[in-house]
Structures are given as C-alpha cells and as structure tokens.
Task: inverse folding
C-alpha cells in the first residue's frame, strides 16, 4: 500500500551512556520525528512510504535524507530550502532520573515552509493512507496550514486519514492547541489520542468516575467520534514503574465498541522515544493489511513494546518479530 | 591438573550498546566457542589447559591464538591452515527483545580439518581430563570424526572424558544429531545435558508426569546413564524472566542419586553467551579438585551466574570470587 | 553561604561498559574524593565553596583543578607540589558481580602535605561551614594532623563543622581508626555516620535488641552526641537487592529526637560512587538554607538517590530536580 | 541517465586508528565493492543507478541493502539467498607500513549466484550504461558467466558498456584471469586498465623502451583497442611516496589519440580503498554528461584524489566539490 | 592583568576521524568563539579574564559556562536568557579536501541580547584590556550596538582596546561589514587584520606593486593607523600547502615601523580553528606583560602554530611551552 | 633460542586522538617498558622469551601478565607482591608539539623488589641471551642491585649479555647514572648506546672534530669497547624533522670496524615509544640467528622504523614484514 506522512524531521543529539547534558562532550546523532518514525516503520513493514517535509539545502539536510532512504522511506517530495534543520537534545534518563528534552527547532526549514513547497496533486497519486500529528500543528502557523491543506486534499481523494494528537507542552500551550486540534479532527478517520487529550484539549466532559477505566474511555471516545466523525480512536495506557521500566497496554474504540489488548506488557526500556509512533505505525499496518481491530491492537502494542528496546527514534522490529513477540515465542533465549 | 579441550574457536562480532545488526557500523570482536570457553575458565582456575583446534594461517588466526594465550590457555597443538576462521554475528537482545545469532562458520579451517592435523599421542601426554561438545559433532563430518577419535584415544588412556550435548538447531537437525550424539556417549564419563536433550535427541521416554521435577529428571538420567555408561549427568534449569533477567538452578545425577543446587539464583544479565560453558568448567574444576558433587554443583552454578555479568564469551570470575558468591559474601557493596 | 571542605582529590580510572579490570584496554577518567564531591554538590546548589587539598605541579594536577573549576568549586587554596596525584581504579560491578576498587593513593601530594601548605587564617575568612571526613584522617599521619588543625581552627572561629566518619577498611584498620575518629569528634557539630561506625569504631554499646531499628539508633546516637558534644547525627540505611539495585532510607538524630525519611526509595544504579557524599551535601545544603531537619533529611535522601543515576563521583542533580523527585513529580515521563 | 552496475558487495571490517589486525578488539564496518562503489558515486552525481548482486536473506544482507539505499543506489534487482555475505578485513597501513587485506569472500551468495537470479530483460529497461569489472570475473565461474551474459545483453540493447580490468592476485592467478578478461573485452566500449594489465593479462607486446611513458601507453592501448574493438582506455599512473602519500595522474587513449590529465596531484591519504572506482565513476559521469575526454579525465582524476581523503569505500565528493578541486579553488581554507 | 572580552560562545559539533557531515552518526562537542578563545588563552597565561556574552537558561547554556570555567575564564557577567545557543557544525578537511562550516547561530541568545543585559560600569572595574572582533559586529544589529557601546565605555575609562577584524563571509556581506568595521576602528588601539581587510573592507588603496611584501603592508597599515588612530596592526601571512599543512609568519606595524617574525613556520595541522585567536591572545599577553613588539610577535606566532596542533577551539599551550617552541628547544623528542 | 630480559613493566595511559593531558577524559591503556618491549619483539620473532620483573598481587598486575602472555612472552618467573604497578602518562605530540611523559613509577613493586624475589639459577636454565637496560639501573637501588646480580650470573654461565644504556633524565641525574652504568658495562657483550651516552655518561673524550660522523663514532666506541671489554656497540642516528616525522639510520662498531646501515629512512610516526627497543630486539634477533652484522643492522633499522608505525609499546612487525621492508618490496600498495 502507498502511504504519505507529513511532519518535521529533526536531528536528535544524545549524549552517550546516560551522560547528562551538562557533562556532554559528544553526541550521538540520529534523525527522527513523529511522522518520520511512522514512515520508517511502515516502510519496514513493506509499504511504499513517502515522507513529506522541508529540509535545508546543506549537508545536514542531505544527511537527514540519506537516513530516511536507508530506512527505505521515499524522499522525492521533500522540499529543500530554508534556514536550518530542527534539532533536539535528548538527555536519556535512567532509574529515577527523568529524561530531558531541549528543543531547538524554531526557525527550521519546515516551520517556515509554505504551501507552494508541496504539490499534493502529485504527492497523493495512488496513496491509500495519509498520516500526520499534532506536533506538526504546533510547529508554526505555516506548518499548521500545510497540514490542514494536506488532510483536506487527502480526504477529498478518499484517502484514509490518520492523526496522532501528540500534544507537546514544550511546543505550544493548551489555549493554542485546542482550536487547532479541533479544526483538523473533522478530517480524521483514525485518531491516536488518550484520556488527557480528550479532556484537556477537546474539552469533552469526563464521564462520572463510578465506572471502570474501559468504561470511562468508552464514554469519552464515543463523544469524540460523535462530535468529529472520527472512525476509530486508539491509545495506550502507560504506567511508569521507573524511568526505564514501564507497563503498557492498548485500547481501541470503534463503532461503539471498546477493545483492550489481550495482554499488558511490563518491560525495561533502552530508548523511550518513538514508542508512540511505533504503536501508531503498528496499528496502521494492521489496518492497511485488513486485519481485525483486535489483532491490530495487539500488533500495535507489540510493536510499541519492542520499539522501547531499540536505540534511535525508529522502530526496527520486523513484522515477523512483532508477531513472534505477540505470540510469546522464544522471548528469553538466543536462537543458535 | 592437565586438561585438553577440542572444538572450534570463532570470532564473535557484536554491535555495541545493544545496537541491532541492521544498524551496525562497528563490531566488538572477541573470540569464543564452547570448548575454548571451558578451556579459558579452567586455565583461570589454575589448570594447565591445551585447547585443540585448527585455525587459518593468517592474522585472524594469529589474533585468535593471542587471545587464547592472554587467557592462559596453551596453544601448541593448534593446527594452522585451511580457508578461514569461523565467525558469528551476535545481536545482543535486551528486555523483551531476543538475542540473534548469525553463524558464518561453514568452510572454516576446523570444519575442514583432517585426522592428520592432530597427534593425540602427543596431545594426551599427562592429561587428566578431555572435554568436547555436541557443537563439534555438528560442525562437519570431519570434525565429528576427529572428536570421536579424540574421545576414544582419551578413554583408552584412562583420561576422564567430559561432554556437553549442547544441541544447536542452527547447526544441524535432530535427525542428524541423534546418531552422532548417541555414538559418542558410550565414551563419556561426565555428561552435561538437559531434559530436552534426553527426550528429543536420545529418545529416552519421558517418565510419567505425576512426579515432581527432580523425580522426572532422576528417571530420565538414570536411563541415560544405564544405556550409555555415563557416570554423571549435570544440567541447569533456566527460567527466562526477560531476555536480560534469568533464574538459574543446577541439578546433578550420579549413581542413582539426584542433587539440586542449594539455592537458585535470579539475576540481571550483561552477556549471556558462555553461561553454559562456565557451568561446565565450574563443575569440572570441582571434579578435578576432588570436591564432592554438591559443592561442585553449587560452584558450577555460581560460576555460571557470575559469567552472565561478564562481557565476552569467557568466564573471568576467579575461584575466590565464585566461592564468595556461593557463600553470599559482600555482594552488594564496594569494598574500599 | 561560604563553605570549606578539606580532603584528597583522586583521579578515578574506570574501564567502560562494565568491563573487568583484567580486560581493560581503556579507562574513563574522572576526578573525585569524598570532600571534593561534597564541595561540587554544594557549589551546584549555589554556595561559594573552597576545596582545600594538595596536588602535584604537573598536568594531572592541573587537569584535576580544571575539573573542579568546571564544577564551580573554587580552587585558590589548593597547594601544589609533592610527588603524585592519588589514583584509584574502579571496576564497576553489575547484577550479582560486586564492584572492586584498587587504591593507588599512597605517597600522594596530599598524603605528604604539611601544615605549612595551608593558611587557615586566610582560608576561613567569611566561612560558614567546614566539612571533612574520616577518609582524610586515614590517608596519612600528616593528613590527619592537618584535618585536626583545620577543624579546631574552624571551631575557634565559630564555623559550623561537619564530619563524615566514612570508614574505609582498605585505608586503615579499626585499631588505627578508633583513636583518630574519637579525637576529632569533640570538634564536630554535624556528624554523618551509621550503626557500624558507632559500635565498631566509637565502641558505643549497642542497645538491647528488643527495640526496633529506630529505637536502636536513637539509643546509640544519643550516647554518641552525649559523649562527644555532637549536635546531629545523620545516616542512611542501605539494603542491597543486587549490586545495581539498592533500597535507601535516611535517619537523623538531634536533641533527643529521631526522624526517619518520609519515604524509602528503591532504585537501579548507574554509578554508586559518591552516593554518601551527595547525601551529606544534600543535608548540609538544607542546613545552610535554614530548612528544618525533616525537610533536610528528605532532601538529602533524594540527592543521594539521584546521584546513583549520574555517572562520575559528583552529584549533578540540581536543587530543583531533587525537590521534584522528593515531591514525586514527573518521574516517569519525558517532558517534551 | 540510467546506469546498471553488477558485482559483489562485501562487508569491510577495519580496525580503527591504524590498529593492526592482531591487535583488533573492534572493527568499523562499511560495505563496498568495485562496482557498488561506482554505483554510489554515480548516484551521488545524480544518475539513477541500479546495483545488481546477490545477498543472503539475513540481517547482514539487509544491512548491506540499507547501506546502498542510504547512498541513493537502487536495489530492487538485488537477488536474496545463498549462504553468506562476502567479507574482507582491511588493516590500514600508514607511513611505511603497507595495508593488508584478508579476503573472506568465498562461498558468498554472489559467488554462488546463478543465471536465473537476474532478469536482464527487466533490469536493462531504459539503461544507458552498464559497468562491471574483472573482480566479478574472478569471484567464481558462476559470477563470470553472469557477467558475460549481462554484458552481452547490454551490448545487444545498444547500452554503452564499461569494464574495469581490476586484476586482484588474491582472487585468481594470471593463468585463470587471461582467458576470462580476453573473452569479455570484445563486448567492452570503455575500458579502465593499465600498463601491467595490457602486458601481463592481455599479453600485448610492450613497445620498445626508447619511447616516453605516454608514447609507450599509446602503442599498447592502440593494440588493445584494435584487437578487442574497445573505444577508450583510461588509466591512472600512481606513484607511492609512502603508504599514505601518493602521486596520481590520469591517461586516456581514444581513436589514436592520447590525453594526459592537465595536472598530476600529490596528496595525503585517509582511505585508499575505492580510489580507482572513484576514478572510473568520475569518467563515466563525464561521459554520460557529454563532456569531452580531457574534461572527463581531469574530473575523473579529481574525483579519485578526493576519494582518497574520504573514509569508507564510496566517494562522497560531489560534482561541485570535484570541479572546485579541479579548478583549484579554495583548497586550503575553511569557508566560514 | 584584568581582561574583558565580548562575543558569542557557540557549541561546535564535529564528526570524529575526519568523517564527512553526510556520514556523521556522532559529533564531538566543544565550545568556542573568537573572543572566548582569546579569553581562554589569556586565562591560561595567568590573567584574570571576564568573558561577556549571553547564553540561554538551559542545560546547554550551563554546559557552555562550565566549559569556560574549566578553562579558568570568569563568567559572572554572562547574561542568561533568550532562545538558544549558537551552534556550528565543522567538517574537518584533510589533505586536499577543505574543511566545511555550517553555521546555525541565527536567533541565538547573544544575537538577540540587548544593551540592558550588560552593565559595563561594573564589568570594567579594574580592567586593563578589552577585546572584541568583527564577528560580533556581524552577528546582528543588536550585537553590533553592544560591541560599540562596550568599546566606547572601555575607551572612556582608558582601557586598552583590541579588535580582530575577522571578516566572515558566511555571516555578512562586504557592503554590510564596511560601515560597521569603519565605525568601530576609531576606538581601537590594537588591531588584528590583514591585507584583504585593509583593501576590501577599509577600502584603503593598495600601494603600487613594485614593492616587496613588507613594503606593501607598511604602506597599507600606515594609512590604516593614520585614518583611524589605531596604534598597532598585527597580522599573519598564511600559505596553505594543503588543507592540513600550512606555513605561517607574522607581521606587525607600529609607529611607522614594520616587524616580521624572526622565523616563518611550516607545520602539520590537527585543528585549524582558533589559530587566529591564539595569535591575538599571544600578542595581547606579550603586550600586557610589557614585552617588546618583536618578542610579542614571535610569541604570538608560536602560540598560533602550537594551537594548530591542539584539538578544540582553545589554545592549551602554556607560556612556557610557547617560549620553548620559539626558542626551538626539544621539539622532536619525548622528554622522559 | 631462549632469552631472558629483566626490567619494569608499566601501565601506559595515553589520551586518545592527540588529546592533551589537561583535556583527558579517557585513557588508552597498554603495558610496556624497555626490556618488556624487547621481550615481546623477540617472542614474535620465534624465540622463547622469559620476562623477569615484579608486579603487584592485584588485578592490574594480572592484567599486565595477561598482556605479556598475549604477546607470547613467558611469565613464570615474574614475582608478585609489593605496593603498586608503575604507571606513566603519555601525551602524544604531533607536528611541532612535543610528546610529554609523566612518570608515576616510584614505589612500584619492581622498584622495591629484593634479590630473593628472583632465582637466577632456575631462570637462566638453557638461556642464550640476557638483556637489560639503564632504565632498570635508574629505577631504584634495589633494581640496580638485582640487575647487577643478574648480569653477573648470566656472564658466569656464558650467556651472551646485552645492555641498552637508555639514559632517562626524568629517572636520575648524570651524577647518579655514571657510576651505575660504568659498573655494569664490564659484564656487557652487546651494548646499545649513542654519542651522548659515551661522552656524557662514560666520560670518554670526544675525538677531534675534524673527522666525519662515522669517524667520530669509531673513535668513541673503540675507546668504549677497549675500556669495558664490550664486543659490539650499536646505535641509531635520529633526525627529527617534526615531532611526527623522523629520519633514522643505524651504526655498529665491532672489532675495530664501523658499519652504517645501507639506507637511512625518513618516515611519519604513529607511535614513537618503543622505537629503540624494536631496534635492539631486531639486532638481537639477527645476532641469535647468526646473521652478519650488516644484515643485523639493516634488520634492526627496519624493525625500528616499522615500530614507529604501530600503536603501543611493542613492535608487532613480523620478521617477514621487516625483511620485505628492508628489501623495499611493495611498500606503497595494498596487496589484494
């Protein structure tokens, strides 16, 4: 299937070995960003994926593109130009010490991109799925306009649209995020988002607390779907036992029904970034493959859990590996 | 005591920091192999150990020999020649992501060695113990013949013989392994092997399931010893809580009696490879030192557990450290 | 506030990636020492801190000073001269394998320093707090004399004095330590030390065992304070679940009252060294800031726990981070 | 323009920092091979390049493909299967110490590939240029047959054919190489090869020595072109001042005329491997771009010289950088 | 002596081992900037140096300050706030491959600093020398205004002023630079700048070409001093034999007299950045120490040459080392 | 042949990538020392070599021994005990920046060894050659006594004795060195030492300056041999073009005749340490192999030059490689 994702690709700079930023004398560089991570994962699952963004006309922009191509993502619709590539510095936490992110993404080529940089007519030829996220809406007014244009163009062409709310408080405030998110949801078919998104951003009234968790969610997401015409809402419940040990499960609402992932997972973490993107990509793969929602949810959860054990933003777990994990095969040993 | 072990020494190439193979831009190189690991451990325990193999006449062969000598293993009976050194690529798993091994050991110097490469008359002068494993039987027909010759020559000279079944499904199928393993067992005094080996390879009928674990094992290994004249069978029970957290205990059968290690151990893992070899070497050291079976089993278990916390194939835990661990002394603190 | 700490600064050489010393081909170098670690932590909390020691007139001495200055510690009273900088080699343990320390600090510039190297008149101008430890007493006769002189000079000037008993069995025996520790305590206001210090070094009779832990401690430390005129005794209770997973709580005795930290903490460890120094610095900061004992104890415990997740000897956790940890805010997530 | 190159892609393992192989504890891994290097260079120059080979169905094969895609090379005609990826170990020499190569490429997937693995009908659709080399002929009988088939198929379709003689004495002897090289030359339009190739492999009589170098070459290559119908022969003259300092110039023969590069270059070397491939790619780019032979030769020489300053097998110098170098612009400074 | 320097401090990110930017997977991070480099060098020579800039209120700003403090530079007048720290990416060239710089310094805290961030009254207390450069003028209008204010305030207080023209074409064009440079020169006592600066920026007529180099310079700089009231002009002549091998000499004009450095130097380069700053700092140190111009020029040249052999932006060569180099003592051997 | 060498083995700690000591955050660790380097080289040439020293009973001592064994050197006569292993810190110079050594070898196990640690009766069984150096004489009074005892014991047994004067000004002054060197020379057969040694230490009158270099040397060494009964004196002439580019030739005096190496060599340097030891080992190998003096001198020079291109203290160039270098074969290319 052909997929298009739109967003910013940043260079992530991480001091090695759980070093703090104030101690840093070297940084490991990878490239990532919510929608680029979804693109990489879907490309690995065998889809033809175009990642759309804007990158500067310098070696760092070229390096970013080489990185995408290494992951099998197609890059011909990436605009070049503008001032700089967005950066972020990640201090990896461990045990009880939280991770820290310093964004240095303002004034980036993508943040200052304009509508004319992207020819959706051409980009969407043959496309089956379009995916973007709330991060793109929060980057800049221009990025927000581009994302809205893109999702409308997709919708008009009958392309399935997917959107991950992904609210980032370091990017924008709730006041700014609310109208933007609300304005895009009417064009969204598949929405990734959680309890806090529904309550704080979409201002849906939280149901009475007498209900159990799944019940609460069903109420919330029923309203969400009813209000905006969204077809499916999918999210994870995450419990943080420590910075590097989490518990995760998955929940899906569709047409009045709630599904919980068959098993919740508790696991140690090598790299936390991209766990949500791997979840989204996992579900979208299942959807594109025509699997049922329950299988899709379990696959998405497995994809997300495995991502947490892989260094870098992108999920390098293959479909086969994820399915083996979901089926609980051979987890502990070395096959040799 | 003088020990001779026979097997293949491979170069192991591991991407650092839990990187996946598809991400690899560098590899850490160590040398290892089941019988070489046993040799290194016994040399560290103070025995005079000859490791017998064949390595190519190039710098990689020389590098492998330097590595053995660094570990105090004697190398004068290592034949040189042939095409290449065996390699394997190890992707180290973590948390819920399993480790992966890619063998690239076909056509190796040892796989294509011939009987004339080894003069057992000379090699076995003064030897007290000979050790090899099922890996050597599975490498090639030639390696199998050499191993059989060696164990027979050892047996004839009254040298204690030790054999670790170590079935590797990536090397050979059960159909091929069965007759080979069965043909060597009559020459074996001390056998390392587990439940699955007994049932699937030796085709011993599993006892009725009403019994407890130790009872099941006693039945199985009694038959094994009776059939092949083996004197002792020793194995571990391993429970994998995650890829990097295991639980381990030890079991020994000898002359109708079963012994369980005094305490089972649960521990985090730094490097899983060589855990079984450290166990075997631990027991063989106890045996060579004339310790009783129970002490030997506890020492073997301690050796194996500590090996899991040491990087590389070889166990670098000293006798003193293992004994302190078995006696549960000072585990948590830094002595300073 | 202005703080003066006195002690030895050593170069610490650690093989990376949990490598054993016998495997080492490279070492990571940091500088540390009990009182220098306290100095670094207090400087980070915003105090003006002078660290007093003696270092050789060579590039290694200069490198050590640059390291202190990088941490905001003031260095103008560091004497230069003597033979060498003290070193120690640290093998970092993991899981069930203990850490190892090899001290190579004999004959160091500080061990051979003399009274004339330090002009306390000048050093103590404007000082509010003086801190040293039992390590300094154990380094050499000369270091002991210097420490005694310093604490007496501090006391005479009405400067609050702080002392961490910090008994190191690799430095000196109990026989030697007892009179030295006993001779300094009469000049100490705030004492960091635990049960074993009180019983084994100070030879205070352990109270009858019918009491609970806090009761036992109250008895012991009441005697300690009564005998030596110490105002507060503070310590941690540490439980070692494995080499890299500990449980920690804090206890304080002052004027007949015992306080336990509000919550004990269980956590994984990145770097164990300096955990006690971070605890001391945390409490001293609270004291200098005029916080109450309970807040001080909780802050000290939080500082110590966070230090265990930071590489190197020095605690790089800021006051704000420690307070967020104590208040249990946002531990699990990435703020982004 | 569309280009197809055929050959083997190997994993190259190099100890860092000029370490010798016998000292190696880690290896840097890149992927390369004569024709793959030409492909990477031409892709960077903006051509659409298909690299054709066979790689195993494992993570190493996948890693190799990701590497090619990162370089913008297209990989859809790479067959998967067979036993292993070819490897070579490179010890980088320096000063007066020569570099060493240990090939471990026997039994590779490409060496054992068969005609059915490649559908030239499909591969050559729209192709303008086909390139392969003597290395491919030397790998195995099967590889030789595949290369011959490919070049004949190319020729039949009117595609320009390019061939680099690239004799490797560690792959095959002269006796074996002679008929193979001679059998392919009749299908070659552009031939990269030097004096020794002409004399030792093609057994062309060296002209009388009274002539100058260019004269000697003209005689030789005139015969070569006349005998085999080759249109152009291009080569470098290399003088080795030390292992890491060379002098290089370029020579071209075409239709009875000899051209020497405008300037010879003397330069320090960072990575020697791929210098010849960069030269070939440089010339082919000029040819595809319709530049004249002299400009092409100068560009090829510049490309080769710059490659020697870039780590890895592939030339990462852009057309713009090579042209600036040829025009001798701004070599010494930093533009900032 | 007390020195104040004003400018921007950037994080420099360099891929290791002469890797190209498009290959980069890790970066080495140091901090530097023209005036910060001068500050570091003068601090190492024993002066009390305040570096004045503005850095963001985040861990990267803190890391930058820690770095300055490690070099003994005083930081209490560094303003905190603004958006980001300036960055630059440095691709280190080698042999014939030039170095590349990608600036990412727009919108930095210093570029957007305002006059109110700096209290020159307080900063200049006791100062003997003020130094800034043309880079600061080129960063932004605000930075230019701050620099002008600062130099005027210095001048008013009778503080010696030093200015390095340091034209950077990637920062601003000649049109923009001309009036800015011309407006600051009337306040400058000591000016570092060369032939091109005088001709292209200051538009001084180049003297007739019949003269020798020193003669040409004397004419130029005489006009420069006459026009702007500058007391001394100092510059280097640099010849680039290759990217990593340069030849350097020094020239000084003062009161109608020209001095050439006693000896020109030819040398291999480890790190080119900061060579000019080391030169300036070397001369300023000589000036502050009351040495004569000739000794100062030779010391400056020696400082610059040694800097080229030291990794990072800052010159770590001590006065003693530079003097030994100037006196040509023991260059080749190891003292041991 | 069997060889015994006596001396100290130190851990050498070198910051990587030409970093200065004041910048160091990590160190590469190798083990070396003059006589250990000779031992390693001779072991690589195929001799059976015992290295005699004393090392502490800790992991660093064990690590040192493992290192020797890796090089094929035999270690059973190494005494264990004492306080510490000697260390030295090496700052590697480059271009015009000299290398720096900080010795930290006082109080080492070997410096405090006693006669009873070594049983020369047993050590010298079957020995053909004994080698030590002036470094050992300079380490301590005890080391000097041990060396004198050893050489006398060797001489008594008719073992050839070899001595490298190797004066180290950081170890001892000329006043102290003179009598020590003079007292050992009567027991020396083969002496490595140069012009300055003869003039400044042995106080031989320098011949009149009218003669050429070889003539001067012949006069000097004739006197040296006559005075002390030394059979051969061998030395290098070293010219330092830069810190990392030297020119080297060899000179030998024996029985009234002078020999100069056939060719002098000019070369770039990767690691300067051990160049003299490689020279000595090269000559001793030639001597033990019964080659003539001229061949021996050329081989020694080749060995030394190649050592300069190899990282670490020990020469890893094989006999075959050295002979190829001396015969000037294939220096520039890669054999592939």
Result:
């Amino acid at each position: 299937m052909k997929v298009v994702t739109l967003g910013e690709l940043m260079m992530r700079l991480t001091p090695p070995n759980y070093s703090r930023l104030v101690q840093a004398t070297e940084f490991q560089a990878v490239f990532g960003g919510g929608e680029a991570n979804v693109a990489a994962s879907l490309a690995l699952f065998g889809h033809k994926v175009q990642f759309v963004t804007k990158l500067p006309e310098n070696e760092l922009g070229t390096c970013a593109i080489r990185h995408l191509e290494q992951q099998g993502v197609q890059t011909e619709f990436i605009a070049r130009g503008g001032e700089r590539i967005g950066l972020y510095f990640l201090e990896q936490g461990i045990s009880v010490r939280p991770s820290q992110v310093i964004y240095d993404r303002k004034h980036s080529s993508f943040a200052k991109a304009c509508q004319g940089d992207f020819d959706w007519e051409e980009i969407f030829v043959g496309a089956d799925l379009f995916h973007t996220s709330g991060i793109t809406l929060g980057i800049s007014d221009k990025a927000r306009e581009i994302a809205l244009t893109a999702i409308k163009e997709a919708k008009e062409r009958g392309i399935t649209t997917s959107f991950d709310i992904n609210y980032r408080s370091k990017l924008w405030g709730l006041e700014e995020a609310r109208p933007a998110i609300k304005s895009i949801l009417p064009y969204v078919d598949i929405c990734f988002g959680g309890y806090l998104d529904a309550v704080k951003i979409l201002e849906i009234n939280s149901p009475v607390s007498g209900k159990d968790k799944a019940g609460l969610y069903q109420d919330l997401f029923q309203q969400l779907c009813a209000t905006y015409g969204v077809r499916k809402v999918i999210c994870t419940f995450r419990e943080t036992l420590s910075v590097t040990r989490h518990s995760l499960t998955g929940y899906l609402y569709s047409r009045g029904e709630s599904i919980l992932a068959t098993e919740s997972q508790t696991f140690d973490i090598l790299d936390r970034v991209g766990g949500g993107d791997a979840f989204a990509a996992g579900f979208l793969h299942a959807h594109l493959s025509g699997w049922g929602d329950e299988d899709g949810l379990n696959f998405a959860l497995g994809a997300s859990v495995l991502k947490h054990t892989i260094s870098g933003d992108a999920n390098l777990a293959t479909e086969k590996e994820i399915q083996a994990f979901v089926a609980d095969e051979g987890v502990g040993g070395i096959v040799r």
In short: The mean pLDDT of chain C is 95.
